Amino acid sequence: VAAYAPAQQAGNLLEAPEPNDTFWTASVLQCGRQALGNIGFSGVDTDVWSFTLSGDREVLVSSSPRDGTGSLLLWLKDESGTLLVGNDRDDHDRIRVELTAGTYYVGAIGGRIVDGNYMPWFGNYALDLVCYPVSGDARCASFTQSTEVEPNGGAANAQPISCCETIAATLNPWDTDTY
């Protein structure tokens, strides 16, 4: 039985062929890029992704299902295998943490915790890695707060933003914001 793999989309990274469940077989994830993966039907598939930081960064890893409803349990480990963020949190489908230079690993497991019980999920997912300079970084001595300008849906109406700028926005179910 062949595993279903998500279709390549421009600019997206794809997970490494199975098995990719260990540090040695991890798929490479890059800051500012979206990766596409698949949690196999077995309910015990873990996809491992690696990324390397050249300096101190605030890192945001977030996940979303690509076909229907579902969620991922994410964990983060350093290159020695030390667990930095476990998958037993209420916000188990995203991680936000400050990290120093080095190589890190994100594990993605299909499922969620409901009333203390693991509920498996399988299917296609997207994984986003965003890396920000940490406070005090010379490249961002301060941050600028801006407000979204509508319409800003789609490439033609994308609102330009700069590094070290944060946006206060309202996103409704029928709204798309592009920056």
Describe the structure.
It is a single chain. The protein is mainly β. It has strands spanning 13-14, 27-28, 33-39, 46-53, 57-65, 72-78, 83-85, 94-99, 102-114, 117-120, 123-133, 144-147, 165-168. Strands 2, 4, 6, 7, 9 and 10 form a six-stranded mixed sheet that branches. Strands 1-3-11-5-8 form a five-stranded mixed sheet, with no helix packed on it. It has a two-stranded parallel ribbon with strand order 12-13. A hairpin with a 4-residue loop joins strand 6 (72-78) and strand 7 (83-85). The chain is globular, with a radius of gyration of 17 Å. The relative contact order is 0.19.
Mean pLDDT: 77
Structural class: mainly beta
**Rg over C-alpha atoms, rounded to the nearest angstrom:** 17 Å
Instruction: Give the termini distance in whole angstroms.
Output: 41 Å
Oligomer: single chain
Number of helices: 0
Strand content: 35-45%
- DSSP strand count: 13
Please bin the fraction of helical residues: under 10%
Taken from the alpha-carbon principal axes, the silhouette is globular
Low-confidence stretches: 1-10
Describe the largest sheet: 6 strands, mixed
What string gives the helices and strands in order? EEEEEEEEEEEEE
Features:
disordered N terminus, 179 residues, mainly beta, 0% helix
Topology:
Elements: E1 13-14, E2 27-28, E3 33-39, E4 46-53, E5 57-65, E6 72-78, E7 83-85, E8 94-99, E9 102-114, E10 117-120, E11 123-133, E12 144-147, E13 165-168
Parallel strand pairs: 1-3, 2-4, 12-13
Antiparallel strand pairs: 3-11, 4-9, 5-8, 5-11, 6-7, 6-9, 9-10
